[in-house]
Here is the input.
Amino acid sequence: MGFPVVHFEINSAAAPELAQFYAEAFEWNLETDGPEYTQIRTEGVCAGTGAPGIDGGIGLSEPGDDFVTVYVQVPDVAEALQRVVALGAEVDMPATEAGRVVIGIFRDPAGNRIGLVRG
Here is the structure.
């Protein structure tokens, strides 16, 4: 059994415009969570079927620092970071409490940002 992707983030200096774009393009439900972050709710809107979707967010980043991150749910973020480092990844953010969850971010051997979350 593998670990599931449970969240995604789209980060851009044009976050407000992208939020509107994705809401219109894919009928995603958006909830503003302060001036720098918008929650994306996809569950129940998947092709109008009510099928579950992966929720995400659109965050504000510095100009020229646009990126997408997917988050994998793991039982222990610090342990998972150690495992990926042993396989050639680099840690961008160590295990960090963020409200009700613990997150960490690494770059895989190709440089892609991947998040880890324990909720």
